[in-house]
């Protein structure tokens, strides 16, 4: 795979960069700039060799969302950066033509054009027409079959960015871990986690399942999880995964009446939920178990929150500190998990923190992603 370092004669060349810019926004400001900080690696490399850098990306799920808050944060980190509220129209072309060597232009949210998600070939061709070469650096979106991911490389010479290269190298290590190895998988949506769970259970010595995902497994073991969030997974699929003797589930959970907050919670064994209770987090016995395991491991992989962050259930913060202070090679991913770790000031304490959530899980399962394969 060719990287941005392999692009010939970069000075003055228009380089179209697909960057990871999907940051959380509140009141017009981004609340975490983790992905943006990682995106700068490639952008700065290109400005230092006097390329004309055209950056594109998406934010949120609504076509009406704008990348302007990302631009406001970006201009504090880079010199000579501008923003245009256009993608492939006349304003965008005028702004690109005005770029000098070493300058950066950020385009508007790609998903404001329906051709992005639809992988419309005319839209992909129009995007490709904005640059001389293309650099894919948005690992977090490389599992999507979108125009800026798999479409653009069909039309212009394409390369991997420095961040994408780092992600691939780090996750290849995670696919062949040093033993003993512990994988921790949280979040929800069993259907998206089932393939990677099979992979991890066949590769790692211990695999802990937490978050809402654990409720499906606890129900499979016969516990009444009452009003807890579940994925309605096929019982046969859960039963098959429960046959692995290296699968670990929570010893205890933090529960509260449905709709209650963390102040109304209590710790319960899985068989102790009352009618109307929901499980929102892992309990102290589970944390102690994971802390002990973490200190025995040479490799630790973690993707997805173990508590309902939106409701303030964040018991896994102590686990994050334990892993950060351990001697294990640690790889962390998942949007909510990464945002929480960043808020704790621990991002630099792990061996690698991925910008991907679903992309990380898919790569661990398949060893590649559509956006990576598209680079040739």
Protein topology:
Elements: E1 14-18, E2 25-26, E3 29-30, H1 34-48, E4 52-56, H2 68-74, E5 81-83, H3 90-97, E6 104-106, H4 115-118, H5 121-128, E7 133-136, H6 147-151, E8 158-160, H7 162-175, E9 181-185, H8 190-201, E10 206-209, H9 213-220, H10 235-241, E11 247-248, E12 253-257, E13 266-268, E14 277-282, H11 284-294, E15 299-303, H12 316-325, E16 329-333, H13 335-343, E17 352-353, H14 358-366, H15 370-373
Parallel strand pairs: 1-4, 1-7, 4-6, 5-6, 7-8, 9-10, 9-15, 10-11, 15-16, 16-17
Antiparallel strand pairs: 2-3, 12-13, 12-14
Helix pairs in contact: 7-14, 8-14, 11-12
Description:
This protein is of the alpha/beta class and 376 residues long. The protein has 2 domains: 4-163, Rossmann fold (3-Layer(aba) Sandwich), CATH 3.40.50.1260; 176-366, Rossmann fold. It contains 15 helices and 17 strands. The chain starts with 13 loop residues before the first strand and ends with a helix.
Keywords:
6-stranded parallel sheet, Rossmann fold, 17 strands, 376 residues, 2 domains
Spatial order of strands in the largest sheet: 5-6-4-1-7-8
The helix-and-strand class reads alpha/beta
Which architecture name of the largest domain does CATH use?
3-Layer(aba) Sandwich
Low-pLDDT runs of 5+ residues are none
Number of helices: 15
What percentage of the residues does DSSP assign to strands (E)? Answer: 15-25%
Tell me the radius of gyration: 22 Å
Work out the helicity level: 25-40%
* Count of discrete domains: 2
The third-level CATH topology of the largest domain is: Rossmann fold
Superfamily (CATH H level) name of the largest domain? Phosphoglycerate kinase, N-terminal domain
Label the overall shape.
elongated
E-strand count: 17
Q: What is the averaged pLDDT score?
A: 95
